[in-house]
Amino acid sequence: MSLSDIPAFLVAIALLIAIHEWGHYRVARACGVKVLRFSIGFGRVLWRRVGRDGTEFTLSMLPLGGYVRMLDERDGPVAPHEREQAFNQRPLRQRAAIVAAGPAANWVLAVLLLAVVAWLGSEVPKAQLGTPPAGSLAERAGVRAGDLVRSVSSDGQAWEDVQALPDLMAAVVQAQALGESLHLSVSDANGHGSRSLKLDTDRLAGRAPDAHLFNDIGFAPLAEPLIRQVLPGGAGESAGLQVDDRVLAIDGRSVPDAGFLRDAIRRARDGDQPRTMAWRVERAGQTVDLQVTPQLVDVDGRSVARLQIGVGAPPERVMVSYGFLDGLARGAQQSWDMAVTTVRLLGRMLIGEASVKNLSGPLTIADYAGQSAQAGLTPYLDFLAKISLSLAVLNLLPLPMLDGGHLMYHLFEGLSGRPVSEWWQRQLQRAGALILMLMMALALSNDVSRLAGWH
Fold this sequence. Notes:
Helix content is 44%, strand content 22%. The protein is an alpha+beta fold.
């Protein structure tokens, strides 16, 4: 995370909070409830304006939240002529609608943003896979260099088309997080033939999403075995490697792609000693033979063979876009799938079947905001959609202090015919505040660990 990430983060948070509170505000006004204040942020007021309906609109110093304060007899005296405009005097169905309108607004925004992303389209890597690392799930599933993934399925019955590599990786990450296996339908590089493979992502259930996890899964786009970077002073430079060298063979074995090359480098060791490899490369039309010895370096507590080079030509990319109706349908389907996955993942974390390291806090969100903003409009809109949906799901959790908790109060009132007592509300508020504080502390701890490279 850097200071350049902060503007993109603040814009995202301010927009999503404003949409959330606008949902509460608009439905409250439609139900005849008087809104006293619409605030973005907490603390000292930096800007204030009073609307025609008497609502005070404010922008406050701490932008990590917001609120809509409505006229309510439980908060203080209400003039007799305004009593009908008090929130607590509205019918139960209206009060529930006002509470649900905030998360609903964030959900609708997520659908629209994902639809816009689908309409705009983007150039993304093709779902054509390179040689998987030895021992990875992809290798054990039978993935071969050049395999083109056409569709995926969680049960081998209902299949979803894969347009490009991001679709495939999203399905893989979802299956791993939920502890499920994933079925793949693949063809050869030219789209001929078809075979089904089973990826045992359920074996990695509970693992935190880090570089080691993705290496153990073993998916990477097909790329030519070119040297694209040689770091000064590294083992690759010492061996005589140069940028744009094309690796033809290692120890007499042909090198089909960059995935094979990376795996050969990782395996170039005998116990705790690096092993020298015989490389044949093509350089400016000439064949050159080199003796290449990697260095063993410590990476997150693991000893790894490295050459300090970058390998792989850019993978083939395809343009993926959708028409108006298809884009809307994709936005709705994606938002539903992400919401279901989020809820199921939270449930698995609660019972210890998924790592709590999946929780992210403001530092990670700010980091992703900056990265997506630098990548362009489409990635930033996609980021906003996912954060908006996360905000909707989080607020619907049945925890006091959140919209979902208030909806539980209304559900109790609807079933029992009487509201939750003030004593019980106070106790539940305290419990809810404690749970939220623990979740925030855990998320922040994960952020610090992730940004510091501790996991």
